[in-house]
Amino acid sequence: MSEPASSGAPLCQPPNADLTPPKFVAPAGSWDCHLHIIGPADRYPLISNRSWTPDEANVEDYRRVAAALRTEHAVVVQPSVFGTDNRCTRDAILASGGKWRGVAVLDPSVSESELAAMHTAGFRGIRINVLFKGGLAIDALERIAAMIQPLGWHIQLLVDGRDLLELAPRLRKLRVPFVVDHMGHMPAVLGIHHPGFQMLLELAREGCWVKLSGAYRLSSQVHPYEDVVPFARALVEAAPSRLVWGTDWPHPAVNVPMPRDGDLLDLLPLWVPDANIRRRVLVDNPAELYR
């Protein structure tokens, strides 16, 4: 989720957006591992201390997207605009009948019984977000890791990849898996040889998970975001068993042309030419990570 959108920028994809199916046909059992459910606002109020204000993007809106993409499973990520109130994300997961999983934002003071209830509901991780107000700060990293270890959850990190050099010693000491959002979320213009991205590759080889998502957040170009292709292919070469894919629907807080989800899925054959590895990214890897 790069920088907060500037005034007048689209704050998320409208429900009536283009739902043209992708040319690429996803294999049975495919996952969309990064999306957000937002609203309705009268039921799920936004926090006052937030970086952006979204439009509604509800469960039924996303079901239409999933139908166009032909994906069967999804991971609903708690957006920063709800802070630590996970009811919207929880209710979306429950509405899926067990096909969706969730990533929460929780205060480290949460009780064991609350965590157990969230696990039963389908949550499998906690997100630390240092780019937007309303997220958990990186200071909570070790406390969160100790709290979720008994459940087998992971930590999901929304950070700028340039900060991974400083964070790496702490990340390597964690006793829980961790996932880095949006291919490291650093400007593609910096190139794959930037020390921050090289650190991400190193961490991925060591077992870190990475989301192949958010190309339009890294790119300085329009679709098909050719400047991001080397980043995706470098990650595929480094750690094909540690990659998952996601739309980042409804693409909140962006100040670039709103992407079409079918176009985003059509990027995958460009990034991952090998069909067997594509299946791992879309089916096998997320099934392992999100259980």
Strand order of the largest sheet: 1-2-3-4-5-6-7-8
Beta fraction of the residues? 5-15%
Helix content estimate: 25-40%
Mean pLDDT: 92
Count up the helices: 11
* Amino-to-carboxy terminus distance: 25 Å
Enter the CATH topology name: TIM Barrel
E-strand count: 8
Which blocks of ≥5 consecutive residues have pLDDT under 50? 1-10
Class derived from helix and strand content: alpha/beta
**Tally of individual domains:** 1
Shape: globular
CATH superfamily annotation: Metal-dependent hydrolases
Largest sheet: 8 strands, parallel
Return the CATH architecture: Alpha-Beta Barrel
Q: Spell out the helices and strands N to C.
A: EHEHEHEHEHEHEHHEHHH
Instruction: Kindly provide the radius of gyration, computed on alpha-carbon positions and rounded to a whole number of angstroms.
Output: 17 Å
Mind explaining what this structure looks like?
This protein has 291 residues and is an alpha/beta fold. It has eleven helices and eight strands. It has an eight-stranded parallel beta sheet with strand order 1-2-3-4-5-6-7-8. α6 links the parallel β6 and β7. The longest helix is centred in the last third of the chain and has 16 residues. It is globular and about 45 Å long. The N terminus is likely disordered.
Offer a concise description of the structure:
The chain is an alpha/beta fold.
Topology, pairings included?
Blueprint: E1 31-35, H1 59-69, E2 73-77, H2 87-95, E3 100-104, H3 112-121, E4 123-129, H4 141-148, E5 154-158, H5 164-172, E6 178-180, H6 195-205, E7 209-212, H7 215-218, H8 229-238, E8 243-245, H9 261-266, H10 268-271, H11 275-290
Parallel strand pairs: 1-2, 2-3, 3-4, 4-5, 5-6, 6-7, 7-8
